[in-house]
Design a protein that fits this description.
By secondary structure, the protein is mainly alpha-helical. It is built from 17 helices and nine strands. The structure holds (2R)-2,3-dihydroxypropanoic acid.
């Protein structure tokens, strides 16, 4: 047990306990009443700071929702709740437990590797990681077969929710091609729990739900979903996180896997390392997502564009350009890292992924800055994150201009990151 003296550590542990619904955490009460994929990977690392057995349980609970083909869904609906839309009835997926039918950024293998390497209870960690390893292997095979069927080295996301950065300005143009008509009646609940001014707009929800309707009509079959989706992007965030996760999976495969596993993972890593540079946008001077339907780079700088550092995949000139960009952003806002370039005309400091600071993204960027030998900037990003949380509480996200905490309160992944940064 690590007893940290950080001023909000006790509160952070209390929040994880309060959001615990029996082996899994909801991101926050009411607004998000189920288990979310990438939230849980961070939440597990947070639990690991003070209760390792509970940390492993978080991941085991998430994997109760894994599909036979390897998909780890974005949401696992362990218990019913009327507080969220779209619930299991809209997804229409007959599984126990019910799940959604799309995914989220694959942080899981990285979480398992870091929890194993940092474990105080080595025996428990070895046993748990060994048992979880085959599910991770199947999940990464799913990313390959379902989302990169041509083995290009870049995976495709089919819904903004899959990027975790739902209403980023990076998706505006691609999402504008998705029709607003829906078969499902939209009954948003999020705007009754949070200020509508900090949530995605109504028209975005219409397009989000049009995509859900489209995939439900495609029977949740990965090949059909890929073929019919009117939204197809190579998200720089997801691709960087997956490349990092593949490297962590390879480390796990060295302990628990077979030579064939290691060869397959190494092949994917080589392919991804060769492909990620294609997401460099020279005119923008940074990494950016690629609209695969339009066949063009998306000219919007976001915090996700810094995640190739987390993947340990950037050349020295790219690192110099990315860190210079971060320094320019630091001169424009009070707190790093805004989710969108604060100089961009569609930057909105309060609205979800259009500007606010997110602690989990900061944690990944700081980790990447360490790899890039920019301990000074890593310390700045970590220091800003801790300062935001200590002054405002464990909010879902923060206004980068004045630090105000926004969105849901008592947020699980913010609590987890605070524990990790102050442990
Ligand atoms: C939501 O409902 O706001 C989530 O971000 C979807 O994963």
């Amino acid at each position: 047990m690590s007893a940290t003296a950080a001023p909000r550590a006790e509160e952070a542990r209390r929040i994880l306990h309060a959001n615990d619904r029996g082996g899994y955490c909801v991101p926050t009460a009411r607004l998000y009443p189920f288990q979310w994929n990438w939230d849980s990977a961070f939440v597990a690392m947070g639990w690991a700071c003070f209760d390792e057995a509970r940390a492993w349980q978080e991941i085991e609970s998430l994997l109760k929702g894994q599909w036979e083909d390897g998909l780890v869904p974005q949401i696992v609906f362990h218990a019913p709740s009327d507080d969220y839309f779209p619930g299991p009835d809209v997804w229409g997926i007959a599984r126990t437990p019910p799940t959604s039918g799309i995914t989220q950024p694959p942080v899981l293998a990285t979480a398992v590797r870091l929890m194993l390497d940092g474990a105080r209870d080595k025996t428990l960690a070895e046993a748990k990681a060994h048992a979880i390893y085959p599910s991770l292997l199947r999940n990464h095979a799913w990313w390959q077969s379902a989302r990169d069927p041509s083995s290009s080295g870049l995976v495709t996301t089919l819904h903004p929710w899959e990027t975790g950065m739902d209403n980023s300005p990076a998706w505006d143009a691609a999402l504008a091609r998705v029709p607003t008509e829906t078969k499902t009646e939209i009954r948003r609940r999020d705007t009754t729990h949070a200020d509508p001014a900090v949530r995605p707009r109504g028209e975005e929800y219409q397009r989000f739900i049009h995509l859900v309707d489209t995939f439900r009509d495609a029977g949740w079959d990965p090949a059909r979903m890929y073929a019919v989706s009117p939204f197809r992007v190579a998200d720089i965030g997801t691709n960087a996180i997956l490349l990092r996760a593949e490297q962590d999976l390879l480390a796990l495969a060295e302990r628990f896997g077979t030579p064939d596993d290691r060869a397959a993972i190494a092949t994917r890593i080589a392919r991804k390392r060769a492909a990620l540079p294609r997401l460099w946008n020279g005119a923008l001077g940074g990494f950016a997502s690629f609209d695969q339907i339009e066949g063009a780079s998306i000219p919007v700088s976001t915090s996700a564009g810094l995640l190739p550092l987390f993947a340990h995949c950037a050349t020295p000139p790219q690192i110099a350009a990315m860190t210079a960009q971060l320094e320019r952003w630091a001169a424009r806002v009070k707190y790093l890292v805004p989710s969108t370039d604060p100089g961009h005309p569609r930057f909105e400091q309060l609205r979800y992924w259009r500007g606010p600071v997110w602690a989990v993204v900061n944690w990944m960027i700081a980790n990447g800055l360490d790899w890039a030998n920019r301990a000074d900037l890593a310390a700045l990003v970590r220091g800003n994150t801790v300062a935001l949380i200590e002054s405002q509480g464990l909010s879902e996200y923060f206004d980068p201009t004045d630090g105000r905490g926004i969105g849901g309160a008592d947020f699980s992944w913010t609590a987890a990151i605070y524990l990790m940064l102050t442990a």
